Amino acid sequence: MKTESQSPQVLNDFLAYLYTVKGKSSGTAHEYYLDLRMFFRFLKQQRGLADGVPFDDIPIDDVDIAFLQTITLSDAYSFLLYTAQDRPKHGNSDHSEVGLLSASRARKVSALRSFFKYLTDKAHLLSHNPLQNLEYPSVRRALPKYLTVDESIALLESVDGPYKERDTCILLLFLNCGLRVSELCGLNLSDIKENQIRVLGKGNKERMLYLNEACVDAINAYLPHRLEPNRDADSAGALFVSRRRNRIRKTTVEHLVKKYIAQAGLDASKFSAHKLRHTAATLMYKSGVDIRTLQDVLGHDNLNTTMIYTHINDANMQEAANRNPLSGYKKTNKPPEEEG
Which of 79, 137, 261, 290 has the fewest CB atoms below 10 angstroms from its CB? Predict the structure, then answer.
């Protein structure tokens, strides 16, 4: 992972720690960098240390330990309020969304808490962690969109073309194993062991998944058509290979999934490769897979992340109740008939 230019050394050291010790992806480390850069720019602006300088041009390379020692919990909450209300009025080179959602603010809290915990507990550059009690904002989780069984079958039936064996295999692994796109692209031929497959997930954490009959058949049907990959370090041994004999890219996978979703007559604006992961998880949960097992299959560190799929059943049960033909029944207050 490359360090960020125009950054103080203490921040680059933290990013290297995230990548090498904590096992965070380079993408996650870069997002933390953007969040912390915005935080430092905000503080310098608030303290009159960048008068006349546009927000997105405020330098942070002079942020040092003396500056960090002045930061308080109130500074952090003021920053979060700023990201929720004021930031959209300024430039948006850090983030393009109009108004940061609570999920984005939660990530900023995570970046701040992680950075100051590192300064205090790991680097020992601060004697006291001023953000130890910084709380996460509540995040409203939307129910994930997913394909029904019939829609999933229609998707599989829509596959055609010169790479149909490869693409069918890709779709079946998504729909049966709940893989992330990055996990599927990272698969190597050597990761397949009879009816199991080794998956390298977030934070370089490995998990072994069992392959059902459909997946085994799809892999066996694909391998005779698999192109021999190029011998460069990235492509050598790749399970899924592009027409140029490189390891298949995320953009390619996302494109082919969108193409087949449209060919199946489904709304390509609502469904994506990641939605196939949701589909696998939802169908497994509805079929009786317990939540702890589902957590292991999906590679979630936190059970709360997996719990979203329990709410799908709740929503379906409510819909079933509402669709009952007697759901609108109201008792009429008819007067009793008079006796003759």
Answer: 290
